Amino acid sequence: MPKGKPWTREDEKALREMVEQGASIEAIAEAFDREPDAIRMKVKRLDLKVVVQRNGSYRTTTSGLLPSDILTHEQALRILAGAIEKASEPGLDKVEIMRLKVLVDAAKTYDSVLEKFEKWVEIENRLLELDKKIQELQKAQKVQS
């Protein structure tokens, strides 16, 4: 089976935007000049959810996949503490222990990623402040000239 044309980052960004706007697979396929099956495969690879509408046509959406707000460190630690507390109870079966292990690992990973995210946000805010100050200085220089 021959491969289609490769997806660029711009294509993927545009695809995500169309997905978030609720465009149909057929409309997306037409916009990208690709087969609907190619769009379905890419949507699946990008972990976007495909929903069948009542009339039988397909629509893609990210709703339900992403939380409306991110958890705080405190909320992640509460989940971690709750999982650890539950894991200390006697008589848990293997499935419950594995589920709790997944929760503990996820909470620890999430907290680590959240910390990095917060540092990047802080750096971005500092850069924005510096950019504003540079613009103010440039305006002041033009006035003095």
Explain this structure.
The protein has 2 domains: 9-61, Arc Repressor Mutant, subunit A, CATH 1.10.10; 73-144. With 145 residues, it is mainly alpha-helical. β1 (49-52) and β2 (58-61) form a beta hairpin. It has 5 helices and 2 strands; from the N terminus they run αααββαα. It is flat. The protein has helices spanning 9-20, 25-32, 36-45, 73-87, 94-144; strands at residues 49-52, 58-61. α2 (25-32) packs across α3. The chain has a two-stranded antiparallel sheet.
End-to-end separation = 66 Å
Gyration radius, in Å? 23 Å
Content of β-strand: 5-15%
How are the strands of the largest sheet arranged? 1-2
Percent range for helical residues?
Answer: 55-70%
Strand/helix succession: HHHEEHH
Overall structural class, as computed from helix and strand content, comes to mainly alpha
Mean pLDDT: 81
Principal-axes shape call: flat
Put simply, the count of helices is 5
Q: Low-confidence runs (pLDDT<50, min 5 residues)? A: 58-66
What is the tally of beta strands? 2
The biggest sheet amounts to: 2 strands, antiparallel
Q: Give the count of structural domains.
A: 2
Multimeric status of the protein:
single chain
Architecture blueprint of SSEs:
Blueprint: H1 9-20, H2 25-32, H3 36-45, E1 49-52, E2 58-61, H4 73-87, H5 94-144
Short descriptors:
Arc Repressor Mutant, subunit A; mainly alpha; flat; 5 helices; 145 residues
Quick structural summary:
By secondary structure, the protein is mainly alpha-helical. Helices cover 66% and strands 6% of the residues.
